[in-house]
Write a structure and sequence with these properties.
single chain, mainly alpha, Multidrug-efflux Transporter Regulator, Chain: A, Domain 2, 2 domains, three-stranded antiparallel beta sheet
Length: 130
């Protein structure tokens, strides 16, 4: 399947292969109401819309959003973002996620500095054996 040329319909297997996720994960997202494929008998038929939502789910998970937060974002988008309190709530959720990511980035930077210092000490110790 050429991911740069989306079709109108996808099977669960096609999406699982394209995005390297399990069939079980996709079924779970469906059970949670994040994906809403059509059915032909027992076969799930996913639309471009479902494919785009799966991309957003996976991206949201990578960014540390919970499935509940992703669902809220979808609801906000689907509703047309008419409710001021909804928009403010989602903005707050996004800002909290940004703060957490910045803290994680700072923690990683500190750990890298410590590892670099330990590495330098090891090299200095190795030079003594030359």
């Amino acid at each position: 399947m050429d991911i740069n040329k989306p079709t109108d319909a996808y099977t669960i297997s096609q999406l699982a292969e394209e995005f390297s996720v399990t069939l079980r994960s996709i079924r779970f997202y469906e059970d949670q109401g994040l994906l809403t494929p059509m059915r032909q008998g027992k076969v799930r038929i996913f639309s471009r819309h479902d494919r785009a939502r799966l991309i957003l789910i996976l991206r949201g998970k990578r960014l540390g959003f919970s499935l509940q937060e992703i669902q809220e974002l979808f609801q906000l988008y689907d509703s047309g973002a008419q409710n001021l309190s909804q928009i403010q709530h989602m903005l707050q959720t996004i800002q909290l996620r940004q703060q957490k990511l910045k803290q994680q980035q700072n923690d990683i930077n500190l750990l890298m500095m410590e590892l670099n210092a330990a590495e330098r000490k090891c090299y200095q110790q190795l030079k003594k054996f030359d």
